[in-house]
Design brief:
Length: 428
């Protein structure tokens, strides 16, 4: 018996689809880990290979983020014409199960580990249900290590991704993570994480923790960093900017091998930060915060959310000046996107400001709502200008061409983003 797991590609000409460095879907490897051993699993990642519609798999399992949903439905319909059983899960299907159900045989809502074995058992019994809804949240102690053998022979940059926790205690208005998990923060035991790290470092010393906030529980994070000290790892993850206010924990992260963090600055205006629910961010301390990260050997991939109600066209050069002044090693500049299930979508719907529900344009590059302070066209043009300016050679020189241990990660990252931006412009 065989399952084909499919990760759909991005719409043509979109930045995230143009990136040459690829990372695997850990969520599919997590579902593979709870799949009974009698099932053979094959992975198709459409960002690097074509879908084999002649597959002999009995079940086609698809996961998709919102901008990938239209492509996921095309793939599902093509396999249905081959009389395959199609199952879909992930953030988009969980938020819009009725929409997904029109294209597939069964929809998994929520975290899949608890219901996936049940779904497979029902399939073998001939009584597959159209909907499987996870009751409650998965107990992290019951989550086995990801089944990474499904990544073999793929052209990923590296496959050493893992998760120590799920969820985030904060409640940002725009965040789809909180919409999916709620404000629950659950952790694996440090011992189980260390066992997995011992296995992974035999493959590669680079590790990427996909946690949404690896330091949300200070005591847990301190124990994890202490356990990693001396292992020779070079690792990256996500952390809030206020980590800079906890110097002992920041120092411990650096000493354990952290070379980079994804940090959501999101906006340089304190009132706008308050409006989006980023109440722990203090814009007045951002410059010093960034310095403290760097002083501990930790580079920053910053995030700045464009198009909130307090923004006007002046925001684009302001952000660029800030990034160069603080010498941010890398950054992304997503346009505010009202994803299904988020509080921002509910608010913009109530204000009748949603202008587009074409999911392929929910790629963080299009304005799908009516912004205040500028037109949608100005917002999209400002996004393009900021990306092009930030990843110009002159800006890269000002930001990263000084000795810092994180250059081994962020040097190639800058060049990769620059190449993707140029390919996107060429294809436009």
């Amino acid at each position: 018996m065989k399952i084909l797991m499919v990760s759909p590609g991005w719409p043509e000409g979109r930045l995230w689809g143009e990136l040459s460095f690829r990372f695997p879907s850990l969520s599919l490897a997590a579902i593979a880990a709870v799949t009974p051993q009698e099932w053979n699993i094959e992975l198709c990642d459409e960002t690097m290979e074509q879908v084999d519609y002649e597959s002999d798999a009995e079940i086609i399992a698809i996961t998709a983020m919102t901008p990938q949903a239209p492509r996921a439905y095309e793939i599902a319909e093509a396999f249905r014409r081959k009389n395959k059983i199609i199952v879909m899960g992930g953030f988009h299907a969980s938020n819009l199960p009725d929409e997904a159900a029109a294209h597939v045989d069964s929809v998994v809502v929520g975290e899949g580990e608890n219901v996936w074995p049940e779904l497979l058992e029902d399939y073998l019994k001939g009584c597959l249900k159209p909907l499987y809804r996870a009751e409650g949240l998965v107990e992290m102690s019951a989550v086995p290590p990801a089944r990474r053998e499904i990544f073999k022979r793929k052209r990923y940059l590296f496959t050493n991704t893992l998760q120590t926790s799920r969820g985030c205690p904060f409640d940002c208005e725009f965040c789809s993570v909180t919409a999916f998990y709620g404000r629950n923060y659950r952790k694996r035991s440090v011992d189980s994480v260390m066992e997995e790290l011992e296995e992974l470092r035999r493959i590669n010393s680079f590790i990427f923790f996909v946690d949404d906030n690896i330091v949300a529980d200070r005591k847990y994070a301190a124990a994890l960093f202490d356990g990693m000290r001396g292992m020779g790892l070079k690792w990256l993850s996500h952390a809030p900017v206020q980590l800079a206010s906890d110097q002992p924990l920041m120092k411990a992260a650096g000493e354990s091998g952290c070379v980079g963090m994804f940090v959501g600055f999101e906006n340089l205006n304190q009132e706008t930060l308050k409006a989006m629910g980023k109440v722990t961010n203090s814009a007045s301390s951002f410059i010093n915060d960034a310095k403290l990260f760097r002083d501990n050997g930790i580079g920053i991939l910053g995030s700045f959310l464009l198009g909130y109600d307090g923004d006007n066209p002046d925001v684009f050069p302001q952000i660029l000046r800030f990034c160069e002044q603080t010498r941010l090693e890398a950054a992304i500049f997503p346009i505010l996107t009202p994803y299904p299930g988020t509080r921002i979508r509910k608010r913009l719907e109530a204000e009748k400001r949603i202008t587009c529900n074409d999911w392929k344009n929910y790629d963080m590059e299009h304005a799908n709502f009516l912004p205040y302070g500028m037109s949608a066209k100005e917002l999209e043009e400002g996004y393009d200008w900021l990306n092009h300016s930030f990843y110009s050679f002159s800006s890269m020189y000002r930001r990263i061409f000084r000795f810092h241990r994180s250059i081994q990660v962020f040097g190639p990252m800058n060049l990769g983003f620059r190449a993707a931006i140029r390919r996107k412009r060429r294809d436009a």
